[in-house]
Design goal:
about 500 residues, alpha+beta, two-stranded parallel ribbon, 10 strands, about 40% helix, globular
């Protein structure tokens, strides 16, 4: 893409080199042989595979390995929740508006920038590893030799604060979004965050390169106040029964599978009295992302593990997020609906005349939308739990595994899963929603309204509505989808057992 954003510590070039071949390496499983076919679904899958194989045999290129030449695995692209920002590959749809279309409004839900460490993760496995490491400093060799002189960059007194590198990346990603919508960026006079310092500081940095940035207001929502704003921006905080514990047992079960193997492989490089265990493996892999986000340079911990061990780490966190904020949690659809409903109402209110018809407040706010009347680019800053519940409600990364297979077995990696959070929640990861005005095909002079969703700058079609230009969704159909969604998942307070 011509306007791709890249951070210093994120070798985006290797991502460009790999293109489709890297995607194939991520999702194509090792060949397996089955003794029998147990149902018609498997038979159909085998027939499709046979047809594809025969077609491929007729089209073998002269140099069959050219597509993978120069490929380098980059662990920073496989760290759900802890990697610096990178643009997602998506489906190959152009990032600019489709031909004949103009984006007249866009709303983004953005995770905060890089922090020193998540406090729960730090207490559970990073801090114990650091303590253990300090007691055994010296005697490391091979891939672990760097630990002899390595000092942790994690400031225990500032764990969940934005790092300087995170602030710099926020400026870059903010400018990236502004360049995508140069006319809409001129209308920004208000953005939204919560009361946490990391989201507020991210917002301040994000808007630095916007026109008249010094005049942009940052409105802060308090999680303790239950209202439509907190339900949309902080649904996990606004839901009384939400818990971060789902998926912990499954996560630990799989960690013991791959972490034990990694620990056995690396144990010969540790001091004689040092016992490496799976939690140490998890800590070192987590430090790869956090240290990179602190210093702006790739952590030496990133070079310790094999490609397979990194893919296992990615799978383990995908599993955790699927149970906690994804399709395996019955709350997720309920938590994702408030933001989607609010954006549908917002986009419905801004018509071609830029006027909702309501009487404006003294600060030029439209009381029907809660936003300034003339604003057309809407930025809201939140936490890593929120983009996944919105994506789940939309079906953007949900289960595509058929035939009754378990998408998240705890004994092995499921390479064919759809749920991949590396592409959604790196630091500064985001879900965007665009409203487009497009010429109607075959109807000169007539236009229609369409909705398109963005995940980390890459367009992602809705699985149930993609008949518009560039696989977009007609706005009227989208409003019906939201209406149906609210009929099924609209009882947020009831399901969350909130005291209204």
């Amino acid at each position: 893409m011509s306007d791709a954003y890249e951070v210093e510590a994120n070798p985006r070039k290797s991502r460009r080199r790999r293109k489709r071949s890297s995607f194939a390496k991520r999702v194509i499983p090792k060949r397996r042989e089955y003794n029998m076919l147990t149902n018609s679904c498997q038979i159909g899958a085998l027939l499709a595979l046979t047809a594809t194989t025969l077609a491929y045999q007729d089209q073998i290129p002269i140099r069959p390995l050219d597509h993978s030449q120069g490929y380098q695995f980059n662990p920073l692209l496989h760290l759900p929740g802890t990697s610096p920002y990178f643009d997602a590959v998506g489906f190959g749809l152009r990032h600019k508006a489709p031909d004949g279309c103009t984006v007249n409004a866009a709303s983004y839900l953005i995770r905060h920038g890089a922090i020193y460490a998540n406090d729960d993760e730090y207490e559970e496995f990073i801090k114990p590893f650091l303590y253990k490491h300090e007691k055994h400093r010296g005697g490391f060799s091979g891939p672990l030799e760097f630990l002899n002189k390595w000092q942790s960059p994690i400031d225990e007194n500032s764990l969940e604060e934005l790092t300087p590198s995170g602030a710099n990346d926020s400026v870059k990603v903010g400018a990236h979004i502004a360049r995508r919508y140069p006319e809409l960026a001129k209308t920004v006079s208000r953005v939204v965050a919560d009361t946490k310092a990391r989201t507020f500081d991210t917002a301040k940095s994000f808007i630095k390169e916007y026109p008249k940035s010094e005049d942009i207001e940052i409105v802060r929502f308090n999680k303790k106040q239950l209202n439509n704003g907190t339900r949309a921006l902080l649904p996990h905080k606004a839901c009384s029964i939400f818990s971060k514990s789902p998926g912990a047992d499954e996560q630990n079960a799989f960690l013991n599978v791959y972490g034990s193997r990694a620990a056995n492989r690396l144990s010969p490089y540790t001091p004689d009295d040092y016992k490496l265990d799976p939690k140490d493996i998890l800590a070192l892999q987590s430090i790869c992302g956090y240290e990179t986000g602190i210093t702006g340079h790739t952590s030496p911990a990133c070079s310790v593990f094999t490609d397979a061990e990194w893919m296992s780490y990615e799978y383990m966190w995908d599993m955790k997020y699927a149970y906690m904020v994804g399709p395996l949690n019955k709350l997720s659809n309920y938590l994702g609906m408030p933001w989607l409903t609010a954006q549908a109402d917002l986009f419905d209110a801004i018509d071609g005349e830029n006027n909702s018809g309501a009487v404006l407040d003294d600060d030029n706010t439209d009381p029907l939308t809660g936003w300034p009347k003339s604003q057309r680019l809407f930025l809201s800053f939140t936490h890593r739990e929120v983009p996944p519940v919105v994506a789940t409600a939309l079906g953007l990364f949900n289960n595509s595994v058929s035939c009754g297979f378990d998408e998240f077995p705890t004994s092995r990696v499921n390479w064919a899963r759809s749920w991949r959070m590396s592409d959604l929640i790196p630091f500064l990861g985001h879900v965007g929603m665009e409203k487009m005005i497009c010429d109607r095909p075959g109807a000169p002079g007539q236009s229609g309204e369409y909705i398109r969703f963005i995940a980390n700058t890459a367009p992602r079609p809705l699985p149930f509505c993609q008949s518009g230009p560039g696989a977009s969704c007609p706005f009227e159909e989208f409003k019906e989808i939201i209406k149906a969604g609210n009929e099924k998942y609209g009882d947020f307070d009831g399901v969350c057992e909130n005291d209204k």
